[in-house]
Known about the structure:
Blueprint: H1 2-20, H2 26-49, H3 55-80, H4 85-107, H5 112-133, H6 140-164, H7 166-169, H8 172-214
Helix pairs in contact: 1-2, 1-6, 2-3, 3-4, 4-5, 5-6, 5-8, 6-8
Subcellular location: Cell membrane
Membrane topology: Multi-pass membrane protein
Keywords: Cell membrane, Membrane, Transmembrane, Transmembrane helix, Transport
Amino acid sequence: MGSVGLLYVGAVLFINGLMLLGKVEARSAGIFNLFVGALQVIVPTVLIITSGGRTEAVLGASGIYLFGFTYLYVGIGLLGGFDTTGVGYFSLFVAVMALGYAFVNFQLLNDRPFGVIWLYWSFLWFLFFLLLGLKHDHLTTYTGWVTAIQGWVTAALPSFLLLSGYWQNWNQNLIATVLAVFGVVVFGVLWALTGKRGTAATRAGRAGGETLAAH
């Protein structure tokens, strides 16, 4: 059941990334965030109820709420036109907790691929904190690309491979290594292409605003 929910996490991250890139209208993205947010609250609740009290099952389900509440928060905020500070600082909480879940996957569950994936999510939600909580608008394009890519790499593709049975048949250390290298290289290149340009554009915009104000 968790793999099914993960598939739609991929979809909502892809949609939200396109929204940040200006390809999807915000309110229409908000509706889909509500759909996936509700799903990501129902799924872990069912998993916990049917877990029989098994610690590992409860632990795995507990992390899903972090994302379910994020998408509900984002969806309501987009539809209501609310300030993003709250969801931004909640994203900081998620980013910190994701480090803990990464540690658990590496050390306790011996699931290295998802240990790396939790690090991906920690990085992404920290970007959400910088963009939505601290209002670093120059990160919008970079965050949009990272969000859209992570939708496929950390959620949609792993979910499909898990559901089809292919994921379990592959070397887990190899998957973890490929994911780690891909993340460092791709997000590093993206920053070189969009991050610095976004910073320069923001500075230019501020300088232009100051010039207009002076006149």
